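Hey,

Quick one before I head out. I ran the complex with protoporphyrin IX containing FE overnight. Inputs first:
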Amino acid sequence: MEESLEKLQYLHAALSEILRIGSPLLVRHPVGWVQRGQGDLVVYIAMGRMESFWGDDAQVFRPERLIDEEGMYRHESPFKFTAFQTGQRICMGKQFARKQMKIFAAVLLRYFRFELSEKSKEINYRTMITLHIN
Ligand code: HEM
């Protein structure tokens, strides 16, 4: 099982690209250096789409940006790929979440074919704390 999941490098990149482009808006709590009652706000969705980090096509869904020359997933610094944060508040379920996403996606893509119910309809986002498809 672990070995099979390890082989799914492109899927890993595609799921990561979803997290990059669709990360939520997140309010963080004081971590020591701010005054009591204050908080810091990290706008992940903006960071995930910054051209200074990700280049001119930052708004484009392109999993290949996270694949290296050998076809392996390219690990980015967590200060650049911020979906799971880093340091003291790093997501404790990061590996678990990644594994679950991979298993579900692999099973769904193996047994189902996905297509839009209304092909001519334009797809837009519904901006919420997480990014929904409208
Ligand atoms: C794609 C799925 C997930 C994403 C994008 C995600 C993202 C994050 C982020 C950004 C934080 C830091 C929050 C902060 O700055 O205060 C965090 C914290 C945390 N996450 Fe996740 N998470 C995911 C799934 C999970 C899962 C499945 C678990 C548990 C099985 C989990 C457990 C935790 C815990 C316990 C913390 C708090 C860590 C701490 O403050 O010490 N997460 N997560």
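The beta strands are 25-28, 40-43, 125-127, 131-133.

Talk tomorrow,
K.
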